[in-house]
């Protein structure tokens, strides 16, 4: 059994950065025929031959088991709680395990928003499968996409683009968090380090000092921190100091020089340069706007 909706998008919709072409759900019981029928031209495929699409598709297996293969990603066994991403121009094939079946949700889309994420290395056809686990939030998003698609109200494409962005971001976050949490020691170390950095913004505490105090080499500490937080510890520290500088500029009469040295910048000129790079304003101009 499958339910699907196919949509059209105009040139103006495409300028939004992402458009949706299809939303669907299928439930395959053990022993059922696969693939199901009722798909639009260009979407149906024979399992042994596979297919190539001109769009991305993001699929979530809420129940059951299956197999996924792609040209660059290789072969993967799928379990309940897995997602996989199809890429435009990439050969692929997938199917449920006949003796088990599955429940599968999908949404198809294209646009420069996704193209940029692939180009930046956030998503890759060499890593198409994401082990995210069961998620009520994911299911709700797919169900909301189907509801919106079925109604097809004005500006449906913009609404669906928001759902896709939420799905992709949640998938990315869930898998990375799950991977990192396998080693609770590393997670605890990074969380402790973030607290030490926050508490030491106005102290002569370097990132090297924090790594040494925690009994970790600087190179390993930097690698772990960046993997978990998404930025290097030095950049994290600098961003927090800029945020604190904004507070002091807006709420105190301290001079720019006093703030620079209080927050342990090398010099007022260096502080002003970093502040303008981050905010687009000189500290004095920021203070004038904030008051």
Secondary-structure blueprint:
Elements (H helix, E strand, L loop, with lengths): L1 E5 L4 H4 L4 E10 L27 E9 L1 E5 L3 E5 L3 E5 L5 E5 L5 E9 L1 H8 L9 E3 L4 H16 L4 H25 L3 H16 L7 H7 L4 H12 L3 H19 L4 H7 L5 H12 L3 H8 L1
Helix pairs in contact: 3-4, 5-7, 9-10
Keywords:
single chain, 291 residues, alpha+beta, six-stranded antiparallel sheet, three-stranded antiparallel sheet, 46% helix, elongated
What does this structure look like?
- This protein is of the alpha+beta class and 291 residues long.
- It has 11 helices and 9 strands.
- The strands form 2 sheets. The chain has a 6-stranded antiparallel beta sheet. The protein has a 3-stranded antiparallel beta sheet with strand order 5-4-7, with no helix packed on it.
- A hairpin with a 3-residue loop joins strand 4 and strand 5.
- The longest helix is centred in the middle third of the chain and has 25 residues.
- It is elongated, with a radius of gyration of 25 Å.
- The model has no long low-confidence stretch (mean pLDDT 93).
Structural class by secondary-structure content: alpha+beta
Shape by Cα distribution: elongated
Please tell me the overall pLDDT: 93
Strand content: 15-25%
Total helices: the number is: 11
H and E order: EHEEEEEEEHEHHHHHHHHH
Please mark out the parts with pLDDT under 50 across 5 or more consecutive residues, or reply none. Answer: none
DSSP strand count:
9
Q: Tell me the span between the first and last alpha carbons.
A: 62 Å
Query: Any idea what the radius of gyration is?
Result: 25 Å
Residues in helices, as a percent range: 40-55%
What topology, given as strand order, has the largest sheet? 1-2-8-3-6-9
Question: What's the main sheet like?
Answer: 6 strands, antiparallel
């Amino acid at each position: 059994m499958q339910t699907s909706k196919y949509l059209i998008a105009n040139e103006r919709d495409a300028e939004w950065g992402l458009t949706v072409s299809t939303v669907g759900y299928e439930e395959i019981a053990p022993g059922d025929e696969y693939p199901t029928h009722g798909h639009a031209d260009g979407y149906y495929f024979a399992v042994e031959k596979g297919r190539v699409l001109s769009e991305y598709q993001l699929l979530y297996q809420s129940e059951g088991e299956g197999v996924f293969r792609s040209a660059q990603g290789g072969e993967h066994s799928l379990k309940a709680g897995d997602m996989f991403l199809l890429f435009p121009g990439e050969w692929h094939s997938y199917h449920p395990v006949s003796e088990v079946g599955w429940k599968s949700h999908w949404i198809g889309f294209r646009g420069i928003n996704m193209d940029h994420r692939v180009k930046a290395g956030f998503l890759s056809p060499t890593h198409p499968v994401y082990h995210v686990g069961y998620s009520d939030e994911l299911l709700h998003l797919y169900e909301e996409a189907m509801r919106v698609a079925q109604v097809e109200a004005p500006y449906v494409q913009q609404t669906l683009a928001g759902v896709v962005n939420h799905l992709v971001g949640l998938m990315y976050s869930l898998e990375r968090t799950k991977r990192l949490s396998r080693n609770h020691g590393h997670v605890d170390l990074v969380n402790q380090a973030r607290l030490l950095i926050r508490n030491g913004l106005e102290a002569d505490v370097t990132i090297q000092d924090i790594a040494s105090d925690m009994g970790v080499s600087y190179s390993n500490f930097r690698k772990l921190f960046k993997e978990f937080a998404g930025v290097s510890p030095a950049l994290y520290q600098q961003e927090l100091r800029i945020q604190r500088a904004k507070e002091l500029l807006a709420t105190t009469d301290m001079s720019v020089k006093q703030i620079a040295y209080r927050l342990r910048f090398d010099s007022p000129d260096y502080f002003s340069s970093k502040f303008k790079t981050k905010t687009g304003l000189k500290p004095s101009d920021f203070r004038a706007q904030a008051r």
